[in-house]
Predict the 3D structure of the following.
Amino acid sequence: MKTIEINKEKCVQCGMCIKDCLTCSLEFDSEKYPKFAQGGEERCFACQHCMAICPTGALSFGGKNPKDAGKVKFPKPDDVLSLIKSRRSIRQYKDEEISQEVFDKLKNMFPYIPTGCNTNTLHFSIIESKSAMDKIREKVRLNLIKALSNPVLSKLAGKFAKYKTNFENGEDLIFRGAPHMIVVSSSIHAPCANVDPIIALSYIELYAQSLGLGTCWCGFAQACFKLMPEFGKMLDIPDGYKPVYVMLLGIPDVKYARTTIPESFPISEIREIEDVNQTFTEKARRLLLNFIR
Ligand SMILES: Cc1cc2nc3c(=O)[nH]c(=O)nc-3n(C[C@H](O)[C@H](O)[C@H](O)COP(=O)(O)O)c2cc1C
């Protein structure tokens, strides 16, 4: 619901809500209180910055009480860096389920995950029981054995074809024995449909690991789900949504004694921009194309 309500006793008419609005949806009324400008409701992304920035808590967005919003508090940079460095892809899990309390903590974080244009058109399929996960695990394993027994498919699988014996021996090379899994899907109409789920899983991974959980991005599972669309139904993915990525989840059965020492990425430190032979229209075209992609 896109509404704003102003408590005139509290409003100091500073205009910060108007200045911070990314869609220019707000303006002062004749008494210098904020209101929606013409067409503002339609443009509004419902990001709630107007409510969050108000120094006196005078602005309520969508009927929400600013008093119910959390305090702004950042952890120490060293703590954040330590979490980033200590995070590992976990491939050894305890044979037990995550408690409902911890699942709830994780799920309560989801609404804070940013999405492009604040569309919030994400869907989370969470396999919460080990028995459901085992069912998926077994179906995928049998499907893979079948596929790798086919000479044409086996040839296409290249170096992965040699894993047929592992699957036949009951090894879980795809889901790594994880008791849970999260599949994030995105509306096919979302402007950032391919990016939003990846951001979501990045948030989930770091928060989950801070809660003592183990996670692992699972490109293999993603590939399997692409090959086996029947999983869409099992995962309760809404119509008009596509599954984008998969993360394994569970209680780690492994402890790392230290962090890794990763190689650095190439970084271009740009301080001056040289004119390249491109017209403004061409630059704008490329920018827009990238945005749409
Ligand atoms: C997009 C993505 C997909 C991945 N897919 C898999 C996968 O299918 N199976 C797996 O065991 N690990 C997978 N990983 C984990 C990487 O192998 C892992 O990040 C890398 O080996 C570095 O280890 P670390 O995450 O512990 O630092 C994936 C990681 C990313 C970012």
Summary: The CA atoms of residues 6 and 59 lie 5 Å apart. DSSP finds twelve helices and eight strands in the chain. The mean pLDDT is 95. The beta strands are 4-6, 26-28, 34-36, 59-61, 122-127, 180-187, 214-217, 241-250.
